[in-house]
Design brief:
The structure holds two protein chains of two kinds. Chain A is α/β, with parallel strands linked by helices. Chain A has a domain of 97 residues: Fumarate Reductase Iron-sulfur Protein, Chain B, domain 2. Chain A has 15 helices and 18 strands. Chain A has a six-stranded mixed beta sheet, with helices on both faces. In chain A, strands 2, 4, 7, 8 and 17 form a five-stranded mixed beta sheet that branches. In chain A, strands 11-10-9-12 form a four-stranded parallel beta sheet, with helices on both faces. In chain A, helix 2 runs antiparallel to helix 3 and helix 4 packs across helix 7. Chain A is elongated, with a radius of gyration of 32 Å. Chain A starts with a helix and ends with a helix. Helix content of chain B is 57%, strand content 4%. Chain B contains 17 helices and four strands. In chain B, strands 1-4 form a two-stranded antiparallel ribbon. In chain B, strands 2-3 form a two-stranded antiparallel ribbon. Classes of the chains: A alpha/beta, B mainly alpha. The complex binds iron/sulfur cluster (SF4) (2 copies). The site of one iron/sulfur cluster has 15 residues of chain A, from helix 12 and helix 13.
Chain lengths: 544, 385
């Protein structure tokens, strides 16, 4: 590989980066063109915002405002502390001004569909804001300053994982970083938010990338984008040229368009040729990856000094008259956004949050958007419908050809049916990234991903119960040990009894008796032997 | 698996088993036409009988197993089994032979093991192998329609009786050929009209490779080399064309990505290499040329259509390669050193037998597994500020 690389760099000028082939993948129709027809729009301010803070299970939540309090735009509302998981705190800011009406659990438009603690904000419409502290010249700030500013702005991974961006950057301060990869390979069908963002605001994204590069002290920054997005590519090239006047900060890498090209480890392999081993972290190889949206949020956090109060979300689906990309205030209800796109309510069959392959069905259109809501689909009855009944697996192996992790989904399916944990682990069930490529190609339309999710859950609970039973087994063994010990002690006391009654004449302090309970076995047996010897000696004396 | 789709993914490629099976059947068409052209209507009659009995047997079994007949028949897998089986059976076989074989294939080899997706052995080949064991004689003759000419014309130059030219070939596609094919399939209808033994005796004709093998054993090869027209019945060209047609069908399947290249390539390459290694011109006759091995028998249909039956084949990519090699070796050894005349069925069944083990031990390396512990080198780039 390295010789190839040298050859390539010889021909292509300096150490250029080229895309490599990765395993598996599918090329589903993407349906992105519908939402890309119009420009990104800002939504009007909705009358009510439901701002998610976080699930209570995920960390300790500190509220900074009370019910009935008047808040201003950009005001810090709450902080969720993830320090229990070794992560930094994530603050939440008010997207606009208004009054806090209640704080309660509600459903959030998020993959997990968990209930989260949310702050309900009744908007006053004045949009009165706190003053911002822009840092137009980020070059003056140290990387630690950049990281803390990004943390204070509440920036998290905007791609979907929602991992605090500051933590990823902090991890880089420990290990030297060679590559910062900006992930613009938005491979999942329907979602076009990143593409739209690059098309229209490439300059700011490039600036954001430069900030992230400095914050993580990376040597090189690669922007990886799929080769099927000409508008976005042209925009980045333009932005890079503008930048190049002082110093070229990023390189553009075109990756082949397939799903899931944008999955972290797959994209790393594609652009750097490094395969991250299971259980390893990319930073161990000097690689860190951030999403385009995160780069944009970093730009806003530093250059504009603006906390993360909005994100780009794709609104699409056949039930919408005008699908488009919105810059959405965090906390806007999904239904409000659907209305803005001219939803035909009778046509809508279901709502999906996320893309068509990894998204999940949204039970309630009142659910609020959060920082990771990248796409909302209002599907009509002739798209994205559950297929007919699944048929038997014919072992055609199409799923294995599609799997980016080089797993054997057909075998995993068979072992899932018998719940053969050993084989499931042996066949790499835990390496399944739940991308759904196998489901997509399966001619028997078997719900493979759902099956794997169940098996994973089964293994998890089983491991848990194994630990649990181990615990109780230990407890039991300990009890048996204790009971036996007590018995032994009782026995030795019994044997010692004659000795003690004899010794009773001698005034023995009470503490000694207590201590006798704790004497070791050898001590006891030695005492017994001594006592027996004494008794014998006395008898002998008597006989004489 | 009756659970409905629950969560993600919501999008599907739209490919389904019915489509798959249909494409497979289309891919068989060129071979069937070639066979029709050379051997007459026998193959169509075989197909008709096999399909009828396959559908009946499948429906009955689905009924017995309390499955929805309509949706399961709709997957057309029984039709594919019937087609493959009908093609493997010599044209001109009596109807009961075809019916028995296909019912065995569907009922015992498929449904008693749990139906589609569960059968460890290729049903069509199970049916074929059963017939080959039980009725070896009926299973080796390939009929070419002919007309009995009353006056014998002794032009035989070696004096071998089987080659008396007392029949004249009919065009297989003529009305006469059709009538003969029907009579052969339904001998009871013919018994009153003509003496069926007239056709049955000596007009059966095996594949060139089988003739070659038999010829080798009876030292008839010399006769051929000295110019005797042992193969004058055009069967050599017929098989060549038929094999090429199946090859084309197979390439179509590859193009459509219905099958992967691993199994066919492994089989063809193995047979070719073995045939090339052992081929000794002029010496013992049973080692045919590589060409004869590839195009003189059922190698192509075996490699592209029979061994690739996904249910019973190995399912991992490396496993498929080994599976193909095993089948290739078996095909060649059974042909050359074995006592059975045709080898595809037994070779494929043997391959099926090995498949589960191959699936367990020939697995691709999982992404991120088994890497040399390539932790960060010490001379890592110095951190810059
Ligand atoms: S694609 Fe579906 S039918 Fe084919 S092997 Fe995989 S799970 Fe089985
Ligand atoms: S969902 Fe899992 S098994 Fe299926 S293709 Fe993706 S990684 Fe492979």
């Amino acid at each position: 590989m390295s010789t190839l690389k040298q050859l390539a760099s010889k021909f292509l000028g300096h150490d250029s980066v080229f895309a490599r082939r990765t395993a598996g993948g599918i090329q589903p129709p993407s349906f992105k063109e519908h939402s890309l027809r119009s420009r990104i729009m800002s939504t009007p301010i909705p009358p009510q915002l439901t701002i998610p803070i976080g699930a209570e299970s995920s960390g300790e939540i500190t509220r900074l405002v009370d019910i009935g309090e008047q808040v201003l735009k950009y005001q810090k509302l709450a902080v969720i502390s993830l320090s229990a998981k070794g992560r930094s705190d994530v603050p939440v800011h008010a997207p606009t001004s208004g009054v806090i009406t209640s704080i309660e659990n509600s459903i959030v438009a998020d993959h997990s569909q968990q209930q989260q603690l949310c702050i309900n904000l009744t908007v006053d419409g004045h949009d009165k804001a706190l003053p911002l502290e822009p840092h137009t010249n980020h070059a003056q700030l140290s990387s630690a300053d950049l990281v803390s500013l990004i943390r204070d702005a509440g920036v998290i991974g905007m791609g979907g994982a929602g991992f605090p961006a500051a933590d990823k950057l902090r991890a880089c301060s420990v290990l030297p970083i060679e590559f910062l990869i900006i992930n613009a390979a938005e491979c999942e069908p329907y979602i076009s938010a990143d593409e739209a963002l690059l098309r229209e605001r490439a300059n700011r994204v490039v600036l954001g990338a430069e900030i992230l590069k400095r914050a993580s002290a990376a040597q090189r920054c690669l922007i990886a984008i799929e080769d099927t997005k000409p508008d976005a590519i042209a925009a980045i090239k333009q932005a890079l040229q503008n930048e190049a006047s002082h110093q070229p900060c990023c390189e553009l890498v075109l990756v082949p368009s397939k799903y899931p090209a944008g999955s972290e480890k797959q994209l790393i392999q594609c652009v750097t040729g490094i395969e991250i081993a299971t259980g390893q972290h990319p930073t161990e190889h000097g690689i860190v990856m951030h999403n385009v949206g995160t780069a944009y949020a970093a730009y806003e956090a530093i250059i504009e000094g603006k906390p993360c109060i909005s994100r780009f979300t794709t609104l699409c689906g056949q039930a919408l008259k005008t699908p488009k990309n919105f810059e959405v205030l965090i906390g806007t209800a999904a239904g409000f956004l659907f209305e803005l796109c001219g939803i035909e309510a009778n046509k809508k069959q279901k709502s999906i949050v996320g893309g068509s392959l990894m998204g999940s069905e949204l039970g309630n259109d009142k659910a609020a958007t959060c920082k990771t809501t990248n796409c909302l689909i209002a599907a009509s009855s002739n798209e994205l419908q559950a297929p007919k009944e699944a048929q038997a697996c014919i072992r055609c192996g199409y799923c294995a050809d599609a799997c980016p992790s080089k797993l054997l989904p057909q075998q995993l399916l068979a072992f899932s049916k018998t719940l053969d944990t050993t084989q499931l682990l042996e066949h790499g069930l835990l390496d399944c990234i739940e991308c759904g490529a196998c489901d997509y190609v399966c001619p028997s339309q078997i719900p493979l991903v759902s099956t794997y999710k169940q098996s994973k859950k089964f293994i998890k609970t089983r491991r848990h119960s194994l630990e649990y039973s181990d615990y109780w087994q230990q407890r039991f063994q300990f009890r048996q040990y204790r009971v036996k010990k007590e018995k032994d002690q009782a026995l030795s006391r019994k044997l010692n009894a004659p000795l003690q009654s004899m010794q009773a004449a001698e005034p023995a302090p009470k503490g000694q008796n207590d201590e006798a309970d704790f004497i070791s076995k050898e001590q006891a047996s030695r005492d017994i032997a001594a006592a027996v010897a004494r008794v014998k000696a006395r008898r002998n004396e008597k006989n004489k | 698996m009756s659970a409905l789709k629950a969560g993600a993914p919501f999008q599907h490629s739209g490919r389904n088993i019915t489509q798959l099976m249909q494409t497979l059947m289309y891919a068989l068409l060129p071979g069937i036409f070639a066979s029709l052209w050379y051997f007459g209507f026998g193959i169509l009659i075989n197909i008709a009988i096999a399909i009828t009995f396959a559908v009946l047997a499948e429906a009955a079994m689905l009924r017995l197993r309390n499955r929805d007949i309509r949706s399961h028949l709709g997957d057309k897998s029984a039709l594919v089994t019937a087609l493959l089986f009908a093609i493997a059976i010599p044209p001109g076989s009596p109807w009961w032979l075809v019916a028995l074989g296909i019912v065995f294939a569907i009922v015992i080899a498929k449904h008693l093991y749990g139906g589609l997706g569960q059968n460890p052995f290729n049903p069509a080949m199970c049916g074929y192998a059963m017939l080959l064991l039980a009725f070896p004689l009926e299973m080796t003759g390939w009929h070419i329609p002919f007309e009995v000419i009353t006056e014998p014309q002794p032009t035989d130059n070696l004096g071998i009786p089987i080659l008396t030219v007392e029949r004249e070939f009919l065009s297989p596609l003529s009305w006469g050929g059709f009538k003969q094919a029907l009579l052969l399939a339904f001998p009871f209808a013919a018994s009153g009209v003509i003496d069926i033994s007239d056709f049955v005796d000596g007009l059966a004709m095996a594949t060139p490779l089988i003739e070659f093998k038999m010829a080798g054993k009876s030292a008839l090869l010399t006769a051929r080399e000295s110019g005797a027209s042992l193969f004058a019945r055009e069967s050599e060209t017929a098989w060549e064309i038929i094999n090429i047609s199946y090859l084309l069908g197979g390439l179509f399947l590859l193009y459509k990505r219905i099958i992967s290249w691993h199994i066919p390539l492994a089989i063809i390459a193995t047979v070719f290499v073995l045939a090339a290694l052992f081929y000794a011109p002029g010496s013992v006759a049973i080692y045919g040329t590589p060409y004869l091995h590839l195009f003189g028998s059922a190698t192509m249909i075996g490699a592209f259509f029979i061994a690739t039956d996904p249910v019973s084949a190995a399912t991992t990519r490396p496993g498929k390669l080994v599976y193909g090699i095993i089948i290739g070796v078996s095909i060649y050894s059974i042909r050359v050193w074995g006592s059975y005349l045709d080898s595809i069925a037994f070779a494929v069944l043997f391959g099926n037998f090995c498949a589960p083990v191959l699936d367990q031990y020939c697995r691709p390396r999982i992404f991120g597994h088994g890497l040399r512990s390539k932790s960060r080198p010490n001379e890592a780039p110095v951190k810059r500020e």
